[in-house]
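Quiz preparation item.
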């Protein structure tokens, strides 16, 4: 379930502090330490899954719930509504996908532009 060397597992367990956005039994969300946009948080499963590449049909409900939470939490955290506002979702996967932390995560970015990146 947990990887002792994984920074996001440590954040989920509270061993590394983070600015929490949301938590339930299966999902945790926290602000990115190095934001690219005025709103930038990460949605992660509590279960250690290395990346999108490891997903199986057993994760269908979990990933569906994460995708449904993203727009709710985006508004909660200050993104303005669709269609004038909105947000961007990114899930970097593998080295060529730009993934640095190998615990599946979805970046949710939004707020007024310009952004630093993205
Ligand atoms: P990746 O490139 O793997 O998609 O992005 C990993 C993200 O995790 C980066 O945007 C980085 O800023 C963020 N991050 C890395 N370490 C920490 C940390 O200790 N705390 C928080 N809140 N974010 C982190
Ligand atoms: Zn992990």
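Solution:
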């Amino acid at each position: 379930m947990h990887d002792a060397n994984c920074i996001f597992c440590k954040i989920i367990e509270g061993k590394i502090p983070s600015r929490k956005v949301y938590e339930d039994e299966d999902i945790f969300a926290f602000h990115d330490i190095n934001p690219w946009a005025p709103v930038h948080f990460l949605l992660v499963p509590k279960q250690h899954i290395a990346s999108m590449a490891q997903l199986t049909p057993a994760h269908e409900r979990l990933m569906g719930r994460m995708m449904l939470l993203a727009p709710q939490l985006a508004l909660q955290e200050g993104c303005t509504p669709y269609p004038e506002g909105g947000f961007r979702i990114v899930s970097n996967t593998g080295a060529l996908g730009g993934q640095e932390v190998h615990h599946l995560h979805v970046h949710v970015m939004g707020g007024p532009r310009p952004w630093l990146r993205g």
